C-alpha cells in the first residue's frame, strides 16, 4: 500500500473517542518543514544517527519483563512503526492541541494499542533500561510517560525539529544503536533507555498523518 493510501487508512481507523478533525489532515513526508506535531498525530519516529524507525510488534521479550518488544526497524514501509501521540489522562490537552517543549506525552502503538513503556529491567543486548510496549486503551501508568525535549529554541514540537524523549520514572532517554538482534527480531536494532544524554539519543518525526491545530472557540 502506498504512503497516501496508508495515511488515509490510518486516519479512518483513528479512535472515534478522540473525535474527528475539523479540517483535512496534513499528509506529510520527512522533508516537510514547520508542520506542527499535535495530539492525535499518527507518526513514525526516526532515530537520527542510524535512520531506523521506532517499531513494535506482538512478539515478547525472552528476558527481562517479557512484555511486547520494541526495536529499531530499518525499512520505511512497515505499519508496525506507526505511533499515536497522546496526552497524559490527567491533563486538559485534547486532539489537535500543539505540544510544548517539556510536555509529558504518551506514544500508543497504532497496531497493538499498547503504550511505549520503560522500567528498570535490563535491555536484552546492551543491559541498559528495557523499553517495551505495555497496557492498552484502559490500562496506562507513569511507566508510559515521556518528557518531550526539543533541541534548540523551538517552543512547540514541529516535524523538522530534533527531539529527545526522557522517561519520567527512570530518567532514561529513548535510545538506539547499531547492535542488532539475531533471534526475536533478526536484523532489527535494540531500542533501550539510556540515562546519559548523548548525541545518539536524538529522534525526528518522520512519515505520518499530522492533524491540524484545533482552533480555539
From TrEMBL:
Pfam families for the chain: MIR
Database matches in PROSITE patterns: MIR
SMART domains: MIR
Gene3D superfamilies: 2.80.10.50
Keyword Ribosomal protein among record annotations: no
Keywords, comma-separated and alphabetical: Repeat, Signal
Residue stretches making up the MIR domain: 34-88, 96-151, 154-208
Protein's UniProt keywords contain Zinc: no
Signal peptide: 1-19
InterPro entries: MIR_dom_sf (IPR036300), MIR_motif (IPR016093)
Identification of the protein by name: MIR domain-containing protein
Organism: Hibiscus sabdariffa (roselle)
Amino acid at each position: 500500500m502506498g504512503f497516501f493510501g496508508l495515511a488515509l487508512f490510518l486516519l479512518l481507523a483513528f479512535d472515534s473517542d478522540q473525535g474527528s478533525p475539523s479540517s483535512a489532515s496534513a499528509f506529510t513526508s520527512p522533508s516537510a518543514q514547520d508542520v506542527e506535531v499535535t495530539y492525535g498525530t499518527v507518526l513514525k519516529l526516526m532515530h537520527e544517527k542510524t535512520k531506523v524507525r521506532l517499531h513494535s510488534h506482538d512478539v515478547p521479550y525472552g528476558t527481562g519483563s517479557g512484555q511486547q518488544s520494541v526495536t529499531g526497524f530499518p525499512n520505511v514501509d512497515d505499519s508496525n512503526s506507526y505511533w499515536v501521540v497522546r496526552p497524559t489522562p490527567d491533563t486538559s490537552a485534547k486532539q489537535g492541541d500543539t505540544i510544548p517543549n517539556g510536555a509529558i506525552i504518551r506514544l500508543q502503538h497504532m497496531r497493538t494499542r499498547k503504550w511505549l513503556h520503560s522500567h528498570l529491567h535490563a535491555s536484552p543486548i546492551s543491559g541498559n533500561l528495557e523499553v517495551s510496549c505495555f497496557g492498552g486503551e484502559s490500562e496506562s501508568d507513569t511507566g508510559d510517560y515521556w518528557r518531550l525535549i526539543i533541541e534548540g529554541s523551538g517552543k512547540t514540537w514541529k516535524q523538522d525539529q530534533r527531539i529527545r524523549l526522557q522517561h519520567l520514572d527512570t530518567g532514561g532517554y529513548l535510545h538506539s544503536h547499531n547492535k542488532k538482534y539475531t533471534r526475536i527480531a533478526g536484523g532489527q536494532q535494540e531500542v533501550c533507555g539510556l540515562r546519559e544524554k548523548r548525541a545518539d539519543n536524538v529522534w525526528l518525526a518522520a512519515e505520518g498523518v499530522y492533524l491540524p491545530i484545533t482552533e480555539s472557540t
